[in-house]
Amino acid sequence: MWVVPFSPDYLFAIFDNRQEWYHGSDIAKSVQYYLWEFSNLDAPRAALSRLDTAWQDYYRGIIGNIEGNNILIFGTGLGTLPLMSLRRDRNIYACERYPMLSKLSRGVIQKYGLQNGADIGSIKSICKDPYRIKFPEDIPEKCDAIIFDDFDHTLLETGFVPILDHFRRNLLKPDARIEPPRVKIYAFAVELQIDSSLFDLSALEEYMWSFGAKPFDPEKQRHKTLSESKEILTFDFINFVHPCQKDTDFHINASGRWNAIVYWYELFGKRHYCYQYIDPITVDKDSIVPIKVYQQRTKIRFQTHPPLFIPRSKCLPSWHLEMINDSERNTAYHRSITKIMKTGNIRTLLDIGSGTGLLSLIAASANPDVKIYSCEIFNNLSCTAKETVKRNGYENQIIVINEDLLKLRLPEKVDWVICEVFDNGLIGEGVLRFVRYAKENLMKENARILPQGAVVKAMLIEHRTPDVQGINMSLTNPYRWNSDYTAIDLSKTVYRRLSDVFDVFSFDFLKSGAEDEIRNMEIPIVKRGIMSAVVFWFDLDLDGENRLSSDPFSENSLHWNPAIRYLPEIHVSAGSIVPLAAKHNGSNITYDIIKEKLAPDMEWVSTPRYDPGWVSHANDIECRYQRMILSTAENPNNYKRLIEAANRIASNPGNFDIRAKFATRLAESFYVR
Q1: Structure confidence at residue 651 (pLDDT)
Q2: What is the DSSP letter of 414?
Q3: 154 vs 275: CA distance, rounded Å
Q4: pLDDT at 322 over 70
Q5: CA-CA distance, 249 to 194, in Å (whole number)?
Q6: pLDDT, greater one: 3 or 431
Q7: What is the C-alpha to C-alpha distance for residues 254 and 260, in angstroms, rounded to an integer?
Q8: According to the CATH classification, is domain 51-148 in 3.40.50.150?
Q9: Distance between CA 608 and CA 453 in Å, rounded?
Q10: Average pLDDT over every residue of 66-70
């Protein structure tokens, strides 16, 4: 498929919907429409993710000190901020830009009024394009203060600064209080690293780029800090300085290959980090490297000297670098593959879903006499594998094949199969189907496989939104729903464990098929609560001796997280039994409560498990979006316009009222092949 190279100039350019390229293109308008709808549908979940204790404490402190009879709130914290601001003789204007979020926030406010007999008539909910909120039509009196809660990891890319500027000029009194009033930005130089402890994986460096700032986790992402953190900007939201440039520098305190700049700000009692890739530069300890900071209204960007110039035309799936940097996974596979390569008469080996070739390289280094077929369906991964194999000197031993495993034909059958095609739910990438095909078509009769098996384990939990400052948030629980299982980090999640851990499925990969399987279980409850979901994970048996586990209670730090599957909610008590059916169809694991076996005294939660309008609208938008992509791809010129529109919006999401993650997801999809 044809690709438009992404120019680094786009990182610094300003694109918006007032420009000719946008007005003259129905394709660009369609892209914005669908990305806005995805942002709208995701808005309740995004708001839920922010409601932690630090967030509550921060806004409680602010609201307790605000004076005035007319308060404007932009980003209502699911209705909690207007309710926390409620007092006699005060008018509160609660503004949301996304209809789904506004609907939910209004529901929380109304429920509070009914449950507490509170007069909520002074709270006026407004849901419209923020630039169309007018005085006096929408807000009859200019406001004494504004509270806004519309931030993400980038600080500015939600586009709230121009919105705040509009409010300040049109809706606020000249001396109005603005909260938060200012934020300081800090930055430092880093080398984002690839785990090359076993082999030279520098070929992956070509794929280390992005359309803008990406979230950064200093505890999880492999990196080397090259400079001290320094203050580079202060955003004063009261006296905002319009777009400007600032020259500064980093004092390098460790030699390395500088390929990214991390910047962060502190708000709600915690730090929010993100990073921008740069073209790699080798730096020496005690050197001074100049940078230019571009402060724009909807983004912060960094330019180096020499400036960024490498155009990009391909990237890897976002999960691949996380996987390749999973040292614990790599070490376990290295031990196990080395062990089997040194035992028995092994002439041929197949690596299924070989990615950039790491497991094939381990096998080749352990046994120079084995011929290795390395099969990978993604073209970019396959090309990188070929280059990596060459750089490590194994091109005569490892044959990299860019092919769908289910269509693969080999000139000979193999003695061993190795694979790492596991998602958070174990079988979602198709390992059972792949192994079955390999057994029938590619493996010798007595061939072996690594890993040899796995056990799926699970527990029942309560996962609901707790009260916020005495405000009942139960109406938000349906918006946690997802029709599929998703990853969950329990260390960052408020939940209650309602059962002990139990086994769900056990797979012997050499014997297990991909046929449907159902297992009915009776799960004892150990604690009173509301059962909301099943959390499940896996223990992977590599060779009977070496194991890996995504167990959330272990000290492992694997790239896999447990998975969560939401269930209809039910009240449970200690000692009660939940009849549960676990099912898999070879590539997906589901769970259902067996209703006919449920004890009569167990009550369902009255709140719907999900908002059917929300789910129906999401399904409709996704179907229409996919049809738009497919129909546009039929015409090369239209496809080029589609990519260009996606790139421009991804580099300026705040100017299009779109959340950065959806703009980036679309743009990246054209470069992952």
Answers
A1: 96
A2: E
A3: 9
A4: yes
A5: 26
A6: 431
A7: 14
A8: yes
A9: 38
A10: 95
Asked if residue 223 lies in contact with residue 193, where contact means CB atoms within 8 angstroms, the answer is yes
Beta strands in 163-255 (DSSP E): 172-179, 182-192, 214-215, 223-225, 230-236, 244-251
Contact 393, 371 (CB under 8 A): no
Band (pLDDT 50/70/90 cuts) for residue 344 is confident
Cβ-based neighbour number of residue 343 at 10 Å: 10
* Run of H or E including 18: none
d(CA 99, CA 174): 30
Residue 240 has pLDDT above 80, yes or no: no
DSSP 180: S
CB 72 within 8 A of CB 97: no
Closest among 486, 660, 659, 460 to 570, alpha carbons compared: 460
pLDDT for 13: 96
Tell me the helices (H) and strands (E) count for the chain, helix number first: 15, 29
Residue type, 170: N
328 in Cβ contact with 300 (< 8 Å): no
> pLDDT by residue (tens digit) across 89-118?
999 999 999 999 999 999 999 999 999 999
Give the residue carrying structure tokens 């962060």: 264
413: left (phi over 0), alpha (psi -120 to 50) or beta: beta
Could you check whether 321-450 and 453-610 share the same CATH topology? Answer: no
Q: Is the pLDDT of residue 1 over 70?
A: no
| Residue range 206-223, pLDDT digits in tens | 999 999 999 999 999 999
Confidence check: pLDDT of 458 > 80 = yes
Pick the CATH number of 453-610 from 2.70.160.11, 2.40.50.140, 3.40.1160.10, 3.30.390.50: 2.70.160.11
Question: What percent of the chain is predicted at pLDDT more than 70?
Answer: 100
Q: What is the domain partition of the chain in residue ranges? A: 9-29+614-669, 51-148, 321-450, 453-610
The pLDDT score that the predictor gives to residue 557 is 82
Report the CATH architecture of 321-450: 3-Layer(aba) Sandwich (3.40)
Q: Please, what is the Cα angle at 603 between 602 and 606, to 5 degrees? A: 165
pLDDT at 317 over 90: no
> DSSP code of 106?
H
Give which of 304, 299, 321 is closest to 227, Cα–Cα: 304
Distance CA 357, CA 374 (A): 7
Measure the CA–CA gap between 571 and 50, rounded to whole angstroms.
27
Characterize 289-326 residue by residue with b for buried, 16 or more Cβ atoms within 10 angstroms of its Cβ, and e for exposed. Answer: bebbbbbbbbbbbbbbeeebeeebebbbeeebbebbbb
Condensed to tens digits (0 to 9), the pLDDT of residues 356-382 reads: 999 999 999 999 999 999 999 999 999
Residue whose entry in the numeric block shows the structure tokens 């939660």 = 605
Specify the 3-state DSSP secondary structure of 380: helix
Handedness of CA 417, 418, 423, 429 (dihedral sign): negative
The CA–CA distances, whole Å, from 322 to 16, 193, 316, 330, 559 equal 33, 11, 11, 12, 6
Span 78-82, mean pLDDT? 98
Residue 201 near residue 356, CB atoms below 8 Å: yes
Mean pLDDT of 16-41: 96
pLDDT, tens digit (0-9, with 9 covering 90-100), for 624-648: 999 999 999 999 999 999 999 999 9
Token reading at 625 = 């979006």
- Cα–Cα distances in Å, from 607 out to 61, 432, 480, 569, 600? 32, 38, 13, 9, 19
